[in-house]
Every structure is written in C-alpha cells, then in structure tokens.
Amino acid sequence: MNKRIVSALCLAFILVSCGGENKRHEEARTVKTIITKDYTTERTTPFPGKVVAAEEAKLAFRIAGPIAKIHAHPGKAVRKGELLASLEARDYEIQLAATEAEYKRIKAEADRIIELHKQKSVSDNDYDKAIYGLQQITAKLNAHRNALADTRLVAPFDGYIQEPLFKAGETVGAGMPVLVITGAGTPEVEINIPASEYLEREHFGSFTCTVNVFPDRVFPLELISIDPMANLNQLYRMRLRFKRDSNGELPTVGMSAMVNIGYCHEDNRGEIIPATALWEKDGKTYVWIVEGKDNCSVHAQEVIVVEMLREGHSVCHGIGRDKQIVVAGVHALKEGDKVRLLEEKTATNVGGLL
User: Fold this and answer.
1) CATH of domain 89-150
2) How confident is the model over 292-309, as pLDDT tens digits?
C-alpha cells in the first residue's frame, strides 16, 4: 500500500515538473529588433575637418641679405603686387652699377669690331669673340638687375598677411620663408578619410558641413580633389570648397568643421543590417525574421553577406526591405520561438527605467 502511495506521488511530481518546463518553454523571449532598409538609401558619414585658405603661400627672397623693412603687418589685407618686405639693397646696387659700366665698355668695343667686320678689316675670329663677349656681359647685366629687383618681396595674389617669421635687421638666406600670405578668396575645408571610404569615392553624392559658431546653418560644399596617395597615417586628404550660392557670412580660416558625406548607390546591393543580427549554422549564414503582430515568433532566413561596412554593419541579400529582424540575442533562439518585442526608449524615459 505504501509503495503504491509513493509511486503515485512520484508520478504526480514528474507531471507537475514537466508541465512547468513546458510552461517556461512557451514563455516569449524579449528581443530587440529593427526594420531592414535597402542599401540604395542614401547614408551620411561625418568627418572632422578644418577650414583652410584656398590659397596660401610661404614667401621668401630669392637672394640672401639683411632685411631692411617689413612693410606688411599681421592681418593686413594686401593686393597683388603690393610691397611686403625689402632687403638691404646697397651691395646689389653697387654690383649692378659696376656691371652696367662694364657692359657699356664691352658693347662699344663690340660695335666697333662689328662695323670693321662689315668692311672686311677684322678677322672672323675677332668678330666671334666680340659677339660672344657682348652676349656674356648682357646676361650678367640682366642677372644683376634681377638680383636688385629681388630685394623687394611682393604679394603674389590678393590676401591677408600672417605673423612675419623674421624681423627687420635679421639676415635671411635665399629661399628662407619670411612671410605667409593666405588668399582672400572663398575658403575651403580639408578632411582626411580612411581607405574604406576612399574605395567608396565613386558613390559620394553630397557634401555639407556644420561649424559650431554657426549653430543654425548647414553649408553646402563641392568636391575639389582627393589625394590618390595616403599619408603616413593611411588617410587620404580631401579638399572641398563652399558653394558660391552660400548665403550670409562664411566660416573663416582656422575654424573647426564637421563634414557630412552623403553616399548614394544607384544599384540595389541588398539590405543594410547590424552584424549582430547574423548567425551561422552548417556553414550558412542566417537571420531571425519576426512574424506576426500580437503573437510573434521567429523564422530563420538564409542570407548572403555582400559586403562588411564600417561601424559593425553588413550588406546582405535574401532578406527584403521592411522586414523585422532580431539584432540581439540571436544565438539563444530556435525556430518558431515565441518572442516579445523590446519597446523603444522614449525621450521622457531616460535610461529606459520606466
């Protein structure tokens, strides 16, 4: 009798336990989902940049000597051809005066020999010497005239002067930068992009930038160039200019900017999804598609990964647009599992605590 009672109790306990397991198995799992979008949809990627001058030049004298005067002060607006700095010209003036006197003497002698050669009174050898001598002193005279002219440093274009690199009285060598001038034209923006974005350059569609000191404005840009060779940091330099139809005041040189590049693919390359939505089984790649509205369940859908993008996203074929897929906890699900969708946080529910 006791054995029968014990057996009945054990059987009842097993049935209750199995019922509890089935109940727990039927409980819906809470999952995070997204709605898929075509990769043809334009996306934007931000890059930090800096506003730079369209033209900038480090100006140097072509000859050496002590600086006589700096005529342009920092921040001064100058016109093309305006005198910016000058060297002490005394030595070059003396050199030119001596060369001019020598030139007059040799030219007078050459003119006499040329006239005599016409009269067959001097040999062809003397004539050739006179011609070559005149050519040599003419070249020397032009060189010394240029040297004197090179004691003056003039603006190569309209612009603004930055802080001089030398002061009056200091001696500079030929080719040493003395002044820096920035162009007065429309400024440009310079950014650096990684190799992954450089390979996508054929799909660049639009360019805009924002600047902190102009919080309510978005400036349209147009592409000028992309360097075909990476720098030491494996980044490619891009230069963009502000469009001429930009209204109002433009950012000035030196300001920081955030450039947004819009990408647009003409062909449908698939759907863009987070890489966390992918899982593998038997060498194939799948995603969980959520089916139903009130009583949701998941269904495994095989996909083909076309491309891995930056920031943990992938382009896949085989899903379709506007499909709801699971993007977190995919390895804990099985075919046909019941799921409950995680509600999105609202602006008034900071941290998702409510």
Assistant:
1) 1.10.287
2) 877 889 999 999 998 887
